[in-house]
């Protein structure tokens, strides 16, 4: 039986019933979190504007570029997000974010010294591990700084950093590369070329921001819901337990400790994912993508089975909840297409439409930042507005973010007119961004306060191992196997939309019932409240 530690969240109909003013400090702290997320996505997304230069200098193809941006980052981001999500539920979240920020900034800067694909891949893995600290900590902090009636809005504001950072990364990267290469045609100090200088320029400032983050005050967990949760006296114990449950080959020992039946199930799971990776390798001729994803999916399978044995209430309210799964997988299909379009937009325009990097920064990157900001903020506000009027209101916003970008993407990647491309890319970014705040808030509403960090980590498993891990790679692979046709590559990711439609239609019915029964289902699973 799992101790609740003071943790039951009121059901969502309570949203909108509170009128207490949010303290100014909450808004200040949220602005710092947004700045962190902006830098997070500058460091992550700058690969887009650098892709063609990396391809030329390192002699790689589009499928590798998709793997580098997506899978190499996503697998480690997802896997380490699980134990770090647990740590966010038990330790000082502000400290965790500061340490993670320092790590991913260092690894981004080290990317600037890469001379081959192996070193760049290793640095990208380090960025993924560091960035895995950010959102579990931030989502949990926001849920303790803002009342339930404003959480979708607050999470949407935080999430706007994704689009601001992703957009201005094109502007920053383009300006640095073109100016550096103009000043140093044969390579500058230490022999660095433009794309390497860009990594250094965006990585180093994060080390200074990490010091600012340490000045934030840690809120009392659950206090805003009237359910204060005492600090865990041994916060790293759970982190280490989760770490050894999710990182192969320790996963085998973790399963063995639960008995012969668990060990057999774990080994069968390993065999299944190894066979699946081998088949996909044979079919595509690409080894790194499927080895990384095979390890990632096996690790998640191992962790999930261990979670069921160690913390049945958390398992039941996440992996054991059809409503929770429909929300995160449904949003995963939104991310599948959105990540592909976001990453490949700049390389496509540079190759197919002949646009230079500086123009891409101003006319694709900067508008994309505005589009994403508008979409995520308006989507978050609409999600809260609709929730006050109907219990499935947030799900409708996720569904909107899945369907409405499709015509805009089709316009962007089939036109020969640069202006129409910019318009289509702007609309696609804005419309898909509308879903994020609603999806994040929906996932948080389906668990207890003590589970929020773990719920966030699980939510990001879908956005990373499905959206980021598969979408950009699929676009790059289809392009590489069809004569570098990035238009066909990006549009091929629209195949995910029908699957998302089915999942979200199911969520319309499942989510209201699940949100209204969080406490009852937790008690039925053994939670002491």
Order of helices and strands: HHHHHHHHHHHHHHHHHHHHHHH
CATH superfamily of the largest domain, by name, is MFS general substrate transporter like domains
Oligomer: single chain
Strand tally: 0
Count of spatially separate domains: 3
Q: Please give the radius of gyration in angstroms.
A: 22 Å
Protein name: MFS transporter
Organism: Qipengyuania citrea LAMA 915
Keywords: Membrane, Transmembrane, Transmembrane helix, Transport
GO molecular function, one term: transmembrane transporter activity
Question: How are the SSEs ordered, and which strands pair?
Answer:
Blueprint: H1 24-45, H2 47-58, H3 62-88, H4 93-111, H5 117-131, H6 134-145, H7 151-183, H8 194-203, H9 205-213, H10 235-246, H11 250-256, H12 260-284, H13 288-310, H14 312-317, H15 322-352, H16 357-387, H17 393-403, H18 405-412, H19 418-445, H20 452-480, H21 486-492, H22 497-515, H23 518-524
Overview of this protein structure:
The chain is mainly alpha-helical. The chain has 3 domains: 199 residues, Growth Hormone, Chain: A (Up-down Bundle); 63 residues; 214 residues, MFS general substrate transporter like domains (Growth Hormone, Chain: A). It is built from 23 helices and no strands. α3 packs antiparallel against α10, α6 crosses α20 and α11 packs antiparallel against α12. The protein is globular, with a radius of gyration of 22 Å. The N and C termini lie close together (11 Å). The N terminus is likely disordered. It is a multi-pass membrane protein. It is found in: Membrane. Keywords: Membrane, Transmembrane, Transmembrane helix, Transport. One of its GO terms (molecular function) is transmembrane transporter activity. Pfam families: MFS_1.
